[in-house]
User: What shape does this take?
Amino acid sequence: MESVIQEKGNLSIHTENIFPIIKKFLYSDHEIFLRELVSNAVDASQKIKKLASYGEYNGELGDLKVVVKLDKDAKTITISDNGIGMTAEEIKKYINQIAFSGATEFVEQYKDKGEGDKGIIGHFGLGFYSAYMVAENVEIITKSYKEGAEAVRWECDGSTEFEISPVEKAERGSDIILHIAADSEEFLDEHRLRGILEKYGKFLPIEIEFEDKVINNPSPIWTKNPSDLNDEDYLAFYKELYPFGEDPLFWIHLNVDYPFNLTGVLYFPKLRNDFQGQREKIQLYSRQVFITDEVKDIVPDFLQLLHGVIDSPDIPLNVSRSYLQADGNVKKINGYITRKVADKLLEIFKNDREGFEKKFDDIGLFVKYGIISDDKFYEKAKDFCLLKNTEGKFFTFEEYREHIKENQTDKNDSQVWLYTTDEKKQDAFIQSAKKRSYDVVVLNTVIDSHFINALEQKIEKISIKRVDADTLDKLVEKEVKLESILSSDDQEKVKKVFEGVSESKTAHIAVEAMPVDELPVVITFPEFMRRMTDMQASSGQRSMFGDMPLMYTVSLNSNHPLINKIAGSDNEEEQKTLAKQLYDLALLSQGLLSGNDLTRFIQRTVSTLE
Assistant: This one.
C-alpha cells in the first residue's frame, strides 16, 4: 500500500494575493464556482470511462454520477464524484501548482488513442480555485482509481498554506467540500443552487444529482445522430428549452468536425414584428457545459432571431470561460452557420413550395433581415425569398420580374414594383392600380423600408415605390401621356381655389391629367422622404427631417367632372365649399383628417346631403 505522510506546505504560486485576484477579477459572476466544480467532477468521471475503454482500468465503473449536497447547518456545499480520483502526488501537482492543467496532461498522455480531448471539459487548476469566491475554507477528500492508492485529505483556508493528511474513504473519486464564507451565504439556499445547476449543467454528459433528483439530461439531441431522431424528438427538445414557446416552424441539425468541431440544433420560431423580444434565445455550450446566451460573435446578427443550441469545444473563451475571444474559428463558424441555414431554407423551398409559402409570413422577416445584412446569404436567399401580392400570391424575385414585365416597365425600360404597407388604409390607391392591371405587393414588416433599399441596390433596373407615392402615371411613366380636357387657364384657376382652402404649409398642389374614373383629388407622399423617415424610425433614430410635418402632394384630376365643375363655376363660395370637401376626402383617405377638421367635414357632408 502507498504510504501517505501528513504534510504541510505552501502553494506554488507567484503572489501572496492570488485569492483576492481570483475573487475579484477572474470570474465576473460568483455563481460560476458551481459550474467549474461540477464540470471538474464530470471531467473526472469522463476520464475513468476513457481509461476503462482503453483497458487501463479493469475495476467496476459503477453508476457514474456527480452528487451535489447542501448542509445549511454546517454551512457547506459538497460536490462528489466517483471518477478518476487523485493520489497525494497528483494533488500536489494539480492543486498546489495553480493553473497547471490536469486535463491538458491527460489529453497529451492519451492522444495516440485517437480520441483527442473529446469529452474532457475543464482545466482542473484555475477552475478549482473559483471555489474561493464563495468559500473561506475548502477540503478535498479523494481516492485515486490506481491500485493500492490511499485516500487523502487536502485543506486550504484561502491563504497560501495547505495541509495534506491521510483519511478513510472506501470508494474511488473526490469530494470537494466548501465551507461557505459569511458574505456568500446566499448560496446556502436549495432553490438558488438548483437554479445554478439547471442553468449551467442542464445537459452535462454525466448525471448530476441534487436533493436526490437527477437535474440534467446527459444525452441531449444535438449529441445524437439526426438519422436516429424524428420530429417528435426535436419538438420535445424545443419544449425542454422553451417550455412556454409556440412550436417552431422547422429546424436545422448542425454537425461538422472539420475544420472545427460544431454540433447543435437551430430552430425557426414564428417571428413577430418585435425584433428584440426574439433575441438571446440561442444558447452556447462547450462540451455540454453552458457558457452564454450572448452569441453575437459566433452567429450573424440576423440569425440571432433563431432559437436553439450551439456546442463547440473550438470556440475560444477567456480563462474564466465567460467571454468569447476574437479568433479565426469564430469567423469560420459564423460563415458555416449562415451557409447551413440558407441551404436548409432553399431545400425546403424546392421540396415543398406550398408548405414554404404557408410559413413565409412567419419567416419572411428573418429572411429579409438576412438579405439586408449579409451578401453571401442574399446570393442564396434570392432564390427562395418571396414577395406576396395583394391577391395572396407568392413570387420569387425572378418570377415577379416576369409577372409584371408587360405592364410595369416604364419608358426607361426599368421595372416599377408597387407596394403597400397597409392594405386597408391604401385600398383606394390599390384599386386604382388594379384598374390599370398593375400588381401591388405587400411590404408591411418593421424592416421593409431597409429591405426595399437593399433590393434596389442588388437587383438591376428596378425601382420600388409605395402605391400612394405619386399618381399612377408618374409612378409608372410611359411614353404616351393622357391629355387634360381643361385649358391651362382653367387649370390655374382650379389650383388657386385649392390653394385658398389648403391649411397645410407642406402641401404642394398640382393639376394632373388622370383617367375620368380616378378620384378627383389624390394626396401622395414623396417616396424618398417617407422611406427615409420609416427607416430611421425602425432603427430607433430621430428623423433627419426633425419634427417637421411630412411633405405631400395634392394632385387635382383635371379630367374629373367635379374638378371641371369647380373650373366652370363663377360662384366663389360654391367653388370653395366643393374644393374643401374634396380636399378633406383626400386627407381622410390617407388618415390625415382628425379632431376639429374631421368634425367640420362630417357636419359639412350632412349639410350637403340635406
About this structure: The longest strand covers residues 135-143.
